[in-house]
């Protein structure tokens, strides 16, 4: 009787190893939507620092570094996609957890939360600078609202950021599927292209009238040291660091295998935008280029038309950042939820309305309050590119290939992974050391 009962009882309680969150995600995302979302993640706040890197590296080495980081990014994302296809995990932390256990999974969550939280705070700070002004090296720069309407309580950072956050960003962060952000991401990329077109037009006009600045093709070692060159690498690494969004975007594609194509198209778009902004921005301002090129645009023109163009550039970039915010917030929210509720048998976050809304609002309020209370976290952001972003973009994917829990790594893969880790650790260590020495000297 016990054997018979056992035979009939088994089908009544079917066992499944599938992740319920994977089944809950509608797989109707498009390749174009994936391209827009990936490209938007890459073309974020970092693009305004690219011209300054050209000043340090020179034009040709700058292009080489951009292409090299893009190639390494493509390799590491391919590592991630292969491991995800071979395993059962549907998140970045879960994928690393398959190879390195709970410690590896926790390390990924901490890195994602630290990185994205820092990036989103910086986004709001930049928005506040553009709209309400800031102080740079003892010089006060008025924001667009203050230039247009004067200094009032409603043009201050606290109120202006609150309006932008509630009107533009909050409706977008409340969307529950990453593919739903494809239209805002497409608009974000369009605004970045507007900046490229205006900047390049201004540079060409200045060139034709002989007003462009002299640029360096190669580094000038009379002004920079060899170690200074490494401080530019974290900027590019941060720019190309979209790895935290690989799994959410892939999970919604009709054909997950299309993710590789979407990644390569996005990398080509981002490389073109980065180099165009770097070259034309450096050509326009030369050695007077600021770490944030937006500062140059608010003091460059003495004509009404020039000031009009400057305002368009600054406003388009501010809106661009507001539209990048939701895609970065998506992976931040998902990892915090995974950290807090993964072991409590909760339904997927998108299906649990009270949990989704409360977590979203708490995060949103925290980011806003920090951005208003701490108007300058640039040093923190600078070190993110040398630490947590490097781990997420290069070290973790390469370590998974070396661990090879699924038996998919070839000798070539392991050699590439080893080189990637050595380059990542070496360049990051030098960049951190150089930045610390620079900070001490200042």
From TrEMBL:
Residues 28-428 form the Amino acid transporter transmembrane domain. Keywords: Amino-acid transport, Membrane, Transmembrane, Transmembrane helix, Transport. GO terms for molecular function: L-amino acid transmembrane transporter activity. It is a multi-pass membrane protein. InterPro entries: AA_transpt_TM (IPR013057). Its main location: membrane. The chain crosses the membrane at residues 58-81, 102-126, 151-175, 187-209, 221-244, 265-285, 312-332, 353-374, 380-403, 415-436. It holds the Pfam family Aa_trans. It is found in: Membrane. PANTHER family: AMINO ACID TRANSPORTER, AMINO ACID TRANSPORTER AVT6C-LIKE. This is Amino acid transporter transmembrane domain-containing protein. It comes from Pisum sativum.
